[in-house]
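Memo to structure team: turn this sequence into structure tokens by end of day. - J.P.
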Amino acid sequence: RLASLQWISMMLAKKPDTMFKHLPKLFPSLLDTLSDPDDKVVRLDLKVLARICVNKEHFDVVLNNLVNRFKCDRKLLETRGSLIVRQLSVLLDGESIYRAFASILLKEVDLEFASLMVQTLNLILLTSSELFELRGLLKSSLTSKQSSELFIQIYQAWAHNAVSTFSLCLLARVYELASALVTHMAETEVTVGFLMQVDKLVQLIESPIFIQLRLQLLEPRRYPFLLKSLYGLLMLLPQSSAFACLKNRLDSVSTLGILTADQASSSLLALGGSSNSSKSKEG
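Reply from structure team:
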């Protein structure tokens, strides 16, 4: 299989027009190869698919076929989904890949599959080192037109999964929208699956990906909706390890707020004392 894939890759590099004529016959075999147990075979297969994707027309065809394969083979999505998305993001471009997936999922009629696919893509987005630049773009959603357009496109597709949408808002620092989403989530049915996703999100909030978010908690006056969002998330959780973890984080911020208020009061009292002392001397 490795030799066959190497030959196809070479032919695509040297005679792409000739090979493109045979794509309808090649696609099924290339997609089947993604399920191969050998990682080397899968990685080479993805390189072949990436060469095909260089052509814009074939780029859309490849990703549409890939999503359909994930839809028909949920095990492939579960076992190979992360590797496939990460490798394509490296071989091509993470932003283009996620924009394409978002466009496809926005039209998906199987809502259960769309929710699962969004959940998978969101976890990869939040944890994969290959998507560092894409995360950086999304963090500028409120200050950059390109980032704002990217956020809106992904957000529309992510709406298939409430927790993924909420975490996307946290990543993009769109905290006011995140706060509104918490209220919306409270009105929907809270299932075991939903609570498991929230539990995972709480773990991710404690990871390096969200270190800037945790630092922003030190400025509650500047980021009031961030605090409101996380307290809202806390209220959705039952008593559990995730609840305790998030509560401890927020309690430490509340303590800081009290200390800041006490310091401000002390400063005002000191200022008042100095003022009275000055007036006494003048008298």
